[in-house]
Specification:
Layout (H helix, E strand, L loop, with lengths): L1 H37 L3 H14 L4 H16 L4 H21 L4 H16 L3 H21 L4 H16 L2 H11 L2 H4 L3 H14 L4 H13 L3 H13 L7 H13 L3
């Protein structure tokens, strides 16, 4: 009996030590994923975060990181099924992050971003159906962190995309949503939010690129050219910045 008790105690001690070891391993993997993300290697970052999430499946921090990398990979993925799978993964994990940590602005931001990217890949009618949820989570991010550049960017794009909808799509929007939310959209608000994102993170290329696009479509060509040129001077920080820079060069040539 004494030998049995000693074995039980030893097993309990081993299990007690195993829990923090696993948690530490998840933290170490998250740190490794962060390094891959900072190095603009989203595929490696995503795989690393997924491994960490297996060890700590309830982690909101890991869930929204998975969402972030999946969106980055999906944005310029040419295979539609692969892109859809990445956006679905991003949305599912971002929802998990919001459920686990509803006061974390990053969780709401990455859900808004995942839904927004999903919407942009759809036709106008389908896009309308996601628009309110995109807006709600971006605004919640800004409520929790008024200086969140990413959420300001999402809101700027949201206003611009609504203004770019054709008359038929706007009619569909009113039918689905009663028109109230869509009636609030304007080029002025699109510019205000995009300028805010640039003011908060002036070094981020994508903010300046989308600001240029808003200026262009709001019929402010001189401001659009200046924003495109600023985008081309921006450092390469994000996973897709090489492609963003190519788009900025191409679009700048067409601004008159």
């Amino acid at each position: 009996m004494a030998t049995y008790i000693r074995r039980v105690i030893a097993a309990a001690a081993w299990l007690a030590g195993a829990v923090p070891a696993a948690a530490q391993s998840a933290n170490e993997l998250m740190a490794a994923g962060d390094r891959e993300s900072a190095a603009r290697r989203p595929a490696a970052a995503l795989a690393t975060y997924e491994r960490a999430l297996q060890l700590d499946p309830k982690s909101a921090l890991l869930a929204w990181r998975v969402a972030r990398e999946a969106v980055d990979l999906g944005e310029f993925e040419k295979d539609e099924r692969r892109r859809t799978a990445l956006y679905t993964q991003a949305t599912d994990h971002a929802r998990r992050a919001v459920a686990a940590a509803p006061a974390d602005p990053e969780a709401h931001f990455h859900l808004s971003r995942a839904l927004g990217r999903t919407a942009l890949a759809l036709g106008p009618r389908e896009r309308v159906k996601l628009a309110v949820e995109v807006r709600d989570h971006a605004l919640e991010t800004l409520r929790l962190n008024p200086r969140h550049a990413g959420a300001a960017h999402v809101m700027g794009v949201w206003h611009a995309e609504v203004m770019r909808l054709n008359g038929v799509a706007r009619t569909v929007a009113r039918a689905f949503l009663g028109g109230q939310v869509f009636a609030s959209a304007s080029w002025r608000e699109a510019i205000r939010f995009m300028e805010l994102s640039v003011a908060i993170e002036p070094e981020r290329l994508v903010h300046r690129l989308d600001l240029a696009r808003v200026y262009r479509d709001a019929d402010r060509p001189a401001d659009a050219r200046a924003a495109y040129e600023a985008a081309l001077r921006s450092p390469l920080l994000d996973a897709n910045d090489d492609t963003y820079r190519q788009h900025a060069e191409s679009e700048l040539r067409r601004v008159r």
